[in-house]
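Quick one, probably user error.
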């Protein structure tokens, strides 16, 4: 039996924990999330990242907070009345939504809990019933993720195999490039774009998975590399600047990426470097596929110009963390600076926006949307 994936979030015996992704792949350390502040800090500091995963953690942190309150003695004041509960929970949801602005899944999850709070109170329920509804809804945000990831991976994988049959390039399986990390570490399990690759592997249709290092945070070389290794999926890492060379010298049948927000017209925000890969893929006529749950599609914004782009602290682009080399078995890690000290002028956006005209297909758990001939935007109504 193949080894199982590494879980980004663990819930057991009333404890909520996340794997500290800043220490991966050399150290696997689960850290407790004991408060709302812990959850916010973990998301903001990127101890946990990936749009679906941070939405799940935010929701589960509310579940944990309320569950602990129910066990507390004396009873916390915010559980005395529904008005007190509302006054307590609404600021928490607003606070959590500020942790990372680009990933719409996070705000979608907090809005979902806000809607549950509002509707339960409007239905005349007492405090205990409203809390029970919030806990149930918070758990659902996380529980639904794995199933929908498998659905979208199947939709996307089958669509690609049909698309590729029109030119019959693959002889021993399709070769796919991905960017960043979109597997179990970025979700509640299985993954989006990496789930797509896993599906192809499980159905014996994958030739090889290629992945970029994804500087400056190296989610590819640290996290995707680890997940592919654990799942025993044949893979090759490339530097971000090698995408063009890869397309020139190897048969790549698709680029498949995740998303942090998809606008109504199909413009897609994803990890920095995605736009570069889309431009080069278009030049080489390689299909470019976005795989994301419907919670990532933001129908309230018309196009990518309205997507807020998170600017990370400049120092993060100057540092790398890793194990000491050569490894003497100590497992010791170090953070080193790769730039001159005091460097003035650092541009460090966490995301870029790929225009819809460069995207071949957008996949959600409800199906696949493809741009019509001659059109530069998507109609996403059938898959949202």
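Nope, works fine. Designed sequence:
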């Amino acid at each position: 039996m193949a080894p199982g994936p590494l879980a980004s979030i663990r819930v057991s015996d009333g404890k909520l924990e996340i794997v500290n992704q800043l220490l991966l792949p050399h150290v696997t350390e689960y850290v407790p999330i004991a408060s709302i502040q812990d959850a916010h800090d973990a998301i903001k500091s990127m101890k946990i990242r990936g749009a679906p995963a941070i939405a799940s953690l935010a929701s589960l942190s509310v579940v944990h907070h309320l569950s602990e309150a129910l066990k507390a003695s004396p009873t916390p004041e915010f559980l005395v009345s529904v008005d007190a509960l509302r006054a307590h929970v609404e600021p928490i949801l607003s606070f959590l939504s500020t942790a990372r602005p680009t990933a719409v899944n996070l705000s979608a999850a907090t809005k979902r809990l806000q809607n549950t709070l509002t509707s339960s109170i409007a239905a005349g329920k007492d405090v205990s019933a409203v809390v029970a509804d919030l806990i149930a809804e918070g758990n659902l945000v996380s529980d639904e993720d794995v199933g929908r990831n498998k659905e979208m991976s199947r939709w996307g994988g089958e669509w690609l195999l049909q698309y590729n049959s029109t030119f019959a390039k693959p002889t021993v399986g399709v070769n796919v490039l991905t960017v960043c990390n979109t597997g179990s570490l970025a979700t509640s399990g299985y993954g989006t774009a990496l789930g797509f690759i896993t599906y192809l592997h499980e159905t014996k249709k994958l030739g090889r998975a290629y992945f970029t290092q994804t500087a400056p945070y190296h989610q590819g070389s640290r996290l995707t590399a680890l997940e592919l290794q654990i799942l025993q999926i044949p893979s090759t890492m490339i530097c971000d600047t090698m995408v063009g060379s890869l397309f020139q010298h190897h048969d790549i049948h698709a680029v498949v990426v995740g998303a942090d927000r998809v606008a109504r017209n199909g413009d897609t925000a994803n990890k920095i470097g995605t736009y570069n890969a889309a431009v080069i893929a278009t030049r080489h006529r390689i299909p470019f596929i976005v795989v994301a749950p419907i919670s990532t599609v933001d129908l309230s914004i018309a196009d990518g110009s309205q997507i807020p782009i998170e600017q990370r602290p400049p120092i993060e682009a100057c540092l790398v963390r890793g194990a000491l080399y050569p490894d003497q078995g100590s497992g010791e890690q170090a953070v080193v600076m790769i730039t001159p000290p005091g460097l003035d002028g650092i541009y460090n956006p966490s995301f870029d926006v790929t225009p819809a005209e460069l995207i071949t297909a957008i996949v959600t758990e409800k199906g696949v949307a493809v741009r019509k001939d001659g059109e530069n935007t998507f109609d996403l109504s059938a898959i949202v």
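The chain has a mean pLDDT of 94.
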